[in-house]
Structure to design on (472 residues):
């Protein structure tokens, strides 16, 4: 059903407009100032906005900045102080009409009659998105498989709302890209999107990074620092590896979600923030709760709308679609026109991709580089992956009575050795964050008094976005 937002500080004007618009079969929401109007915009995108020009906290034209021109929302400006200049200015900024108080209700009906109805507009938008989805594109995400179509359905439903989202999936499945797509399809798209890897920040600094700190609040705090929640006000925060957040910070984080208030480290002054939280984990969240890695109350608060991202091995021909997209991106960036050799497609589709989309992207980049600078037209891009599987007999034997710490160490070092020293792959197999793996290796090195075997990454292994560089 079509929806109209009425923004006016005069209650009588609001009531009159609600009455006449309801008769025309439209739903309405009202606001008395810009602040209330922006809250209503976040709750539901209107098809039409009637806004007074002069409001207690600013001008009605300020709402133009909160609406994406591509959304098709019609704006009608209302004023009791009409001037030619104000009318021309409003129309230039994108207003579809300009009404003068006292409002002629017949004029309002005429405006509504000629405005595109929500059903028509949404049908057009739906058709466009449907075409893009069939081509394998939805927002920033790529893929046309049934598994991804299901993800697109869920994203399209939750993006326009203010609901918290919990993204669950293996490492490398594209959880941050999904979070960015949700942000870009929401009314917060003009504000900041900040991605935070909870496992890559030192436990001693994570509270300061999240909420900020005052000058002198701790050693080294030589200036005031604004945290993620303050910098992302009005926008979206993506918290990756949420189960790696320290338990004591999870309590404070839960309070921010419930009240919208937080305090910088070193002060008792509360700061209000309006952010949408999208969290992600590569663990089973319910198992993480049982293990004490995630508070149950925080899990319920984040799990308002869970979305599971499928591993690449379950996405069929999306592997080839993604590989071609990654190669096209490299060609455009470097002004080349490299192509995959004919046999590559079958090989890529037969590989299980344990590192998911991230591993595929790294492979395409390696293959592109190995082709050489001279092969920029139709030269073959060599395939650099191995399709051989590790021996099924490879195992770690842990005698009965071995301490958990010793078993943990033995399993980590054995897995790292099996992965040829590549920490990123070892962390994925073990189901822990890269930061946790680094910390364990440092502990083992300190205990032995010398570097452990396999402590460096394999030569030539490319770094991955969002992972700590320390220790590499």
């Amino acid at each position: 059903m079509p929806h109209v937002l009425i923004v006016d500080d005069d209650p009588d004007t609001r009531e009159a407009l609600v009455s006449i618009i309801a008769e025309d079969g439209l739903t309405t929401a009202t606001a008395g100032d810009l602040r209330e109007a922006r809250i209503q915009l976040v709750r539901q995108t209107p098809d039409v906005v009637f806004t007074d020009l002069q409001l207690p906290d600013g001008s009605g034209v300020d709402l133009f900045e909160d609406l994406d021109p591509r959304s098709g929302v019609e704006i009608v400006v209302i004023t009791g102080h009409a001037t030619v200049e104000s009318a021309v200015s409003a129309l230039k900024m994108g207003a579809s009409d300009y009404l003068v108080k006292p409002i002629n209700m017949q004029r309002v009906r005429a405006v509504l009659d000629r405005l595109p109805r929500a059903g028509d507009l949404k049908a057009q938008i739906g058709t466009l998105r449907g075409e893009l989805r069939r081509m394998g594109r939805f927002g920033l995400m790529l893929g046309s498989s049934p598994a991804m179509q299901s993800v697109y359905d869920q994203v399209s439903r939750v993006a326009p709302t203010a609901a918290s989202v919990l993204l669950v999936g293996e490492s490398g499945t594209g959880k941050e890209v999904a979070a960015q797509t949700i942000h870009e399809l929401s009314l917060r798209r003009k504000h900041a999107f900040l991605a935070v890897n909870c496992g890559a920040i030192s436990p001693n600094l994570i509270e300061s990074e999240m909420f900020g700190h005052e000058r002198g609040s701790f050693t080294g705090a030589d200036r005031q620092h604004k945290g993620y929640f303050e910098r992302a006000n009005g926008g979206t925060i993506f918290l990756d590896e949420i189960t790696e957040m320290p338990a004591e910070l999870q309590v404070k984080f839960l309070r921010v979600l419930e009240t919208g208030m937080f305090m910088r480290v070193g002060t008792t002054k509360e700061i209000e923030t309006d952010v949408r939280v999208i969290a992600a984990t590569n663990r089973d969240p319910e198992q993480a709760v049982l293990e004490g890695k995630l508070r149950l109350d925080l899990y319920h608060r984040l799990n308002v709308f869970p979305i599971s991202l499928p591993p690449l091995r379950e996405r069929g021909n999306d592997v080839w679609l993604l590989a071609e997209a990654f190669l096209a991106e490299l060609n455009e960036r470097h002004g080349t026109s490299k192509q995959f050799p004919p046999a590559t497609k079958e090989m890529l589709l037969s590989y299980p991709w344990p590192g998911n989309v991230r591993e595929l992207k790294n492979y395409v980049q390696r293959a592109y580089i190995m082709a050489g600078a001279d092969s920029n037209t139709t030269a073959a891009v060599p395939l650099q992956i191995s399709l051989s599987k590790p021996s099924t007999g490879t195992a770690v034997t842990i005698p009965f009575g071995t301490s958990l710490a010793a078993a943990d160490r033995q399993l980590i070092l054995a897995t790292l050795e099996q992965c040829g020293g590549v920490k990123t792959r070892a962390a994925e197999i073990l189901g822990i964050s890269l930061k946790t793996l680094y910390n364990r290796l440092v502990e083992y090195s300190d205990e032995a008094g010398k570097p452990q075997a396999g402590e460096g990454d394999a030569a030539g292994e490319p770094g991955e976005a969002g992972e700590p560089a320390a220790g590499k």
